[in-house]
Amino acid sequence: MQNLIKKLVNKNDKKIIFCVLDGLGGLPKHGKTELEAANTPNLDKIADASSSGLHLPVARGITPGSGAAHLGLFGYDPLQYEIGRGVLEALGLGIDLGPNDLAIRGNFATVEYRDGNPVVTDRRAGRIPTEENKRIIEKLSSKIDSIEGVKAGFYPGMEHRFVLKLTFPERIPTGGDLINDTDPQETDKSPLIASGENKESEKVAVILNKFITKIAGVIKDEERANYTLLRGISVYPHLDSYEEAYGLKAGCIATYPMYRGVAKLVGMDVLEVKDNSIASEVETLKREIDNYDFIYFHVKKTDSYGEDGDFDAKAGVIEEFDALVPEIMSLKPDVFVVTGDHSTPSTMMAHSWHPVPIMISSAYPRLGKGSGFGEDTCNTGSLGIIKAIEIMPLLLAHADRLKKYGA
Predict the structure, then answer these.
(1) Helices 278-288/311-329 angle, 10° precision
(2) Short-list 69, 105, 70, CA closest to 177
(3) I want to staple 38 with a disulfide (CB 3.0 to 4.6 A). Which of 230, 318, 386, 387 is the partner?
């Protein structure tokens, strides 16, 4: 798809604001999803004059991770570009990566030892405060430098998240990062052992397991963050930038490192936000809109509360965003989009495979039959059910940024 789009790109001065409420999609509780239960007069009004539908982040029945889901939103086929979360998290924290580096996303977790074996009781260590995270990272950095010539770098993220960068003496061979996550994805289970899928990655996994053991020894006496679960073990890939693929100067407004990382990976400028609030993100949007053709605007807490199983809090974040929509629309974007990267129903407390609501506001809507913005109305919208990788061509078309194809 991108090769076709490159040939058709028509540059102009029209602005696209692409709002992603992470984990937006839900499932009904007492007859309504979180989006449908939320009081969203501003989104509902815009949706009534917009094209709407549902999108599939990867494919039917496939539950996506956030990295894969965002690649799809940005028009990069996640089945073609499988990028580890470690790289995305590292880039989001401003960590430089080279061919000798392995980037790993870490969760501090809580375990209890049963017959000498760690058993996970909290995969996120109670979402410890970021300041506590920083203290523990300093502790690890002072105790662990390298193992068998492989240097370790520890970097704090937000709450329970961190990045571990391992720098090997030589370039990591192709396939050397094909190692499973150690997160069992459930409590009351032991962390998994890192294991490689081939000869090259098995050598790397042996070193990684030694680091896991050493880390556990350093933090075993911590009250909550007494173990680490490692995910997204990966090396740096190379993709066409937004400028190369779509002819767009693109900016990113996001507060969590992973999402800043995936934006940086596709060549977006990562813009500074005062704090983690949606209101601060809107202030950054107001400040930067004139400098960009396209701005990706990310809201995280919809996903966090979905994973926590907090239906009302997730609906509350949607309401908080809705209250700020008039300020966004006052900037008069030519194309205004609201969607999610995937569904995170609070009833499931996890990402799911369910299609995600999307609405596209522009001068060229084709209206559906429903009223308001929710899963049911989007299900009858004019867009139907599309693949996430089809969203960017649609946005370019709505912005008059694609020439006619063929004679």
Answers:
(1) 20
(2) 105
(3) 318
Candidate from 211-215, 238-242, 323-327, 376-380 with smallest mean pLDDT: 238-242
Burial zone of 274 (CB within 10 Å; 0-12 exposed, 13-18 middle, 19+ buried):
exposed
In this structure, the number of other CB atoms found within 10 A of the CB of residue 395 comes to: 24
Give CA–CA dist 260/128, Å, rounded.
Answer: 21
Q: Which residue has the higher pLDDT, 253 or 116?
A: 253
Give the three-state DSSP class for 345.
Answer: coil
DSSP E strand boundaries for 72-205:
101-114, 117-122, 146-147, 150-156, 161-167
Q: Do residues 264 and 119 make contact, with C-beta atoms less than 8 angstroms apart?
A: no
If you average pLDDT over residues 265-270, what whole number do you get? 92
Is 229 in the same domain as 243? no
CATH of the domain at 42: 3.40.720.10
Confidence (pLDDT) at 96:
85
Query: Do 173 and 256 fall within a single domain?
Result: no
Confidence of residue 237 (pLDDT cuts 50, 70, 90): confident
Distance CA 152, CA 171 (A): 15
Residue 395 has pLDDT above 80, yes or no: yes
Answer whether 55's CB lies under 8 Å from 385's CB. yes
- Residue 22 near residue 300, CB atoms below 8 Å: yes
Can you give the C-alpha Rg of the chain in angstroms? 22
Q: Which of 201, 234, 267 is the last residue of a domain?
A: 234
Separation CA 370–CA 382 (nearest Å): 10
Give the DSSP H/E element, type plus range, for residue 170.
Answer: none
Integer Cα distance of 264 and 284 in angstroms: 17
Mean pLDDT of 315-335: 98
Which tokens go with 160? 């329970």
Domain containing residue 113: 89-234
Supply the pLDDT for residue 236: 86
126 in the same domain as 34: no
Q: Compute the average pLDDT of residues 241-262.
A: 93
Query: Quick one: pLDDT band at residue 92, thresholds 50, 70, 90?
Result: confident
User: Which comes out higher in pLDDT, residue 5 or 92?
Assistant: 5
Strand-pair partners of 72: none
Candidates 150, 279, 256, 244; CA nearest to 204 is 150
CA distance 42 to 297: 17
257 CA to centre of own chain: 9
For the chain, first and last CA: distance in Å? 19
